[in-house]
Amino acid sequence: MPYINVKVTDEGVSCEQKQAIIKGCTQLMVDVLGKKPQTTFVVIEEVDTDNWGIGYEQVTQLRNQS
């Protein structure tokens, strides 16, 4: 019973994109480990960019610099 936790920044990921992530992660478990899709759990967590850091900076600040 695989449990896959995907974390992304909360920058407008659409419902369709989330469905594609769920489908792709599930298919990966089927293809690589032979797991059943019916018992494969995929959870997508959206993280505020203030709560995600790269190096010494918050992603919010990095995005504002671009």
Task: Write structural notes for this entry.
The protein is an alpha+beta fold and 66 residues long. It has a single domain, classed as Macrophage Migration Inhibitory Factor (2-Layer Sandwich), CATH 3.30.429.10. It is 39% helix and 27% strand. Strands 1-2 form a two-stranded parallel ribbon. A hairpin with a 2-residue loop joins strand 3 and strand 4. It starts with a strand and ends with a helix. GO terms for molecular function: isomerase activity.
Summarize the structure.
The protein is α+β, with helices and mostly antiparallel strands and 66 residues long. It is built from 2 helices and 4 strands. Residues 2-57 form the 4-oxalocrotonate tautomerase-like domain.
Overall geometry: elongated
Q: What is the average per-residue confidence, as pLDDT, rounded to a whole number? A: 97
Kindly give the count of domains: 1
H and E order: EHEEEH
CATH fourth-tier homologous superfamily:
Macrophage Migration Inhibitory Factor
Beta-strand proportion: 25-35%
**What is the helix content?**
25-40%
Q: In total, how many beta strands?
A: 4
**In the CATH hierarchy, what is the class?**
Alpha Beta
Give me the CATH architecture, please.
2-Layer Sandwich
Helical stretch tally: 2
Distance between the termini: 41 Å
User: Largest sheet, order of strands side by side?
Assistant: 1-2
C-alpha-based Rg, rounded = 15 Å
